[in-house]
Amino acid sequence: MFNYANSGVTVSSILDNRRATNDNLYPIKIRVTFQRIRKYYSTGKYLKSEAWEKLPETKSKKMLSIRFDIQNTFDIVKDTVQGLLYEGGFSFEALNSRLNKSPSDTLNAGFKIKIQALLDNEQVGTHLFYQDALKSVESYGGENISYTVVTVDWLKCYEKYMLKLGRAYTTIGMYCRAIRSIINEAKRAGIIKENQYPFGNGKYEIPTGTGRKLALTLQQIKSVASHSDGTETTEKYRDMWFFSYLCNGINFADMLTLKYSNIRNGEICFLRAKTTRTSKVKKEVCAILTPEMNAIIKKWGNKSQKPDEYIFKYLTGKETPFKEKDVIKSVTKLCNKRLKKIGTTLGIESLSTYTARHSYATVLKRSGANIAYISESLGHNDLKTTENYLASFERDERVKNASLLTNFGE
């Protein structure tokens, strides 16, 4: 029904009548022939022989839909073949490689392709996140979720399922954005139609978490930075938290991978790992190396201070990407455990490694610093991101200002 030929390669949609199902249905496949070798690629569709013969002239809505889906798969294979021919390197190995990087006919397969691509690109953190998202999706929908099943109602039911498990809206939103990413790939590949797309206005809207983000006052920061219970462990993690705060709110993953070569002209300059792969423009973040930061490096840092040496003594540079991720995760967990104890002692709720970044940004805002400077120092790509980031920290300020409305001076 659909045919293409060029430079000795032919692509055809065919009814593979070599073996029928119990219902006398045959699979419809895309056959590629090159140098007398034939390879077959599934469309996921099955028809009886008589239905296949009528398909080119059909006016039935159901059959037209099947024909449209077959053409989509045919076009994906044809376009891939054309690309390889244009590059002068057609082979079945190359064709299979490229097709395997395209979304398959199930959400599960799309996730697995994405996960493998992230692994190949050594994006370990994102790779692990997509693995967790897939486990969650499969725990709800099973291991063979057709794209056509993922409707607005399906997503709403998935959301309710996650809430019953006690998951926060922040987590639900993250996993739903992962699902949307996979479905966007399928949409671009022509596997699903526009009218099947379940996200957007009037359809399923991904929930946004409203978890509390705590920003400390200067007095609270001082109390944390000077706190001691007499143990080296508390002092070490306290100082690591304070370093993060002073170093533009640097996150622990970036902080633990800082090297002495990042110190230049009295500043620490680095690229945020979170945005390096996703941003076209690589924006370097620079933080003034304060006397307090120097003291922390002198106390807890590597003594050799060679340019290729990590500043802090947790990584060696010989770790695999997965091992590096494990080390950073372990250090962050231990630090948070110690910070929780410090917070309990000082009466500061939810003290964690994240609080350092939140506090850095908010202290500058409260002190009247230009928002463009705050945005640049945080490594954000636009001011809107910074504005949204800061907006969630100022409840205390709103409470204080609300009290002014009835301060009648009695």
UniProtKB/TrEMBL annotation:
MF GO annotations: DNA binding
Example GO BP: DNA recombination
Classification via InterPro entries:
Arm-DNA-bind_5, DNA_brk_join_enz, Integrase-like_cat_sf, Integrase_catalytic, Integrase_recombinase_N, SAM-like_dom, Tyrosine_recombinase_XerCD
Can you give the residue ranges of the Tyr recombinase domain? Answer: 211-404
PROSITE patterns according to UniProt: TYR_RECOMBINASE
Q: Which UniProt keywords apply?
A: DNA recombination, DNA-binding
- Please give the Pfam families that the UniProt record associates with this protein: Arm-DNA-bind_5, Phage_int_SAM_5, Phage_integrase
- Superkingdom of this protein's organism: Bacteria
Tell me the protein family, please. Answer: Belongs to the 'phage' integrase family.
Protein name (Swiss-Prot/TrEMBL):
Integrase
Q: What is the lineage of its organism?
A: Bacteria, Pseudomonadati, Bacteroidota, Bacteroidia, Marinilabiliales
